[in-house]
Amino acid sequence: MDFRRQRQQMVEYQLKARGIRDERVLDAMMRVPREHFVPPEQRAAAYADRPLPIGSGQTISQPYMVAAMLQALGCRPEDRALEVGAGSGYQAALLAELCAEVYAVEIIEALAEQARSRLAELGYDNVHVVVGDGTQGLPEYAPFDRIIVAAGAPEVPRPLIEQLADGGRLVIPVGSRLAQRLVIVDRDDGDLLRRQDMPCVFVPLFGRHGWSPEA
Predict the structure, then answer these.
(1) Bridge-partner residues for 105, per DSSP?
(2) C-beta of residue 169 within 8 angstroms of C-beta of residue 194
(3) Is 6 helix (H, G, I), strand (E, B) or coil?
(4) Longest dimension (CA), the chain
(5) How far from 6 is each of 38, 91, 201, CA to CA, in Å?
(6) pLDDT at 1 (0 to 100)
């Protein structure tokens, strides 16, 4: 299959046509081979306009949603980023194109191992995949200039706010287990500025400061 052509069509018709204007995000989505981050049986649908299953009850998000969140995040080349919910590693690869250094946390060990392997094969040596509870962040590597969460939370986890650098930004879906809105939190001279963005639907964020699997 001509995956490069499919990437071009994704960028033109799914992203630009819907208002994604950040050229760095568009360029990154054109460079990262999404087909490497889906299971073999899903490769034909790698650039479809929808989320896809990646195993363990998790999904790789719709391309437009990934791009919209990255555009809201506003990454700079010098930034250190934290990703919560690495999944298959696709968004971590995009962050690696946009930032200087990326820490990606995944609570499911099998997915983390797969993501680590894919990222290494593709030469992303500025990404560190960690197995753990992403709702607690990674205090040993904080602070982070940019934090992005790829699962829906009942509220913004306090540890993530505490690990956000001054001048930093956090983007996270917040709401019920069935529907959320993107929430953007900026830290400016110690003050926290919070605003809501677009509606969205993500898998639940599990962990100490997220949802309980038994809930």
Answers:
(1) 84, 130
(2) no
(3) helix
(4) 50
(5) 15, 18, 25
(6) 78
Measured over the CA atoms of residue 192, residue 75, residue 92 and residue 103, the dihedral's sign is negative
191-200/144-149 β-pairing: unpaired
Closest CA to 55 of 130, 112, 122: 112
Structure tokens at 146: 């940019």
Asked whether 138 and 80 are in contact (CB, 8 A), the reply is no
Contact 26, 13 (CB under 8 A): no
Q: Can you tell me which residue has the tokens 């992203």?
A: 15
Cα separations in angstroms, 4 against 9, 38, 176: 9, 16, 37
CA 82 – CA 64 distance, rounded (Å)? 20
Domains and CATH numbers, the chain: 3-200 (3.40.50.150)
pLDDT of residue 13: 98
Could you identify the residue written with the tokens 């400061």?
209
Judge whether 56 counts as a catalytic residue.
Answer: no
Residue of 61, 117, 176, 212 with catalytic role: 61
Q: 100, exposed or middle or buried, with CB in 10 Å at 0-12, 13-18, 19+?
A: middle
Q: Position of tokens 């926290």?
A: 192
Q: In the chain, what is the straight-line distance between the N-terminal and C-terminal CA atoms, in Å?
A: 42
150 CB contacts (<8 Å, ≥6 apart)?
61, 69, 83, 84, 85, 86, 87, 91, 202
Ranges of residues in the chain whose predicted pLDDT is under 50: none
Q: Cα–Cα distance between 59 and 87 in angstroms, integer?
A: 7
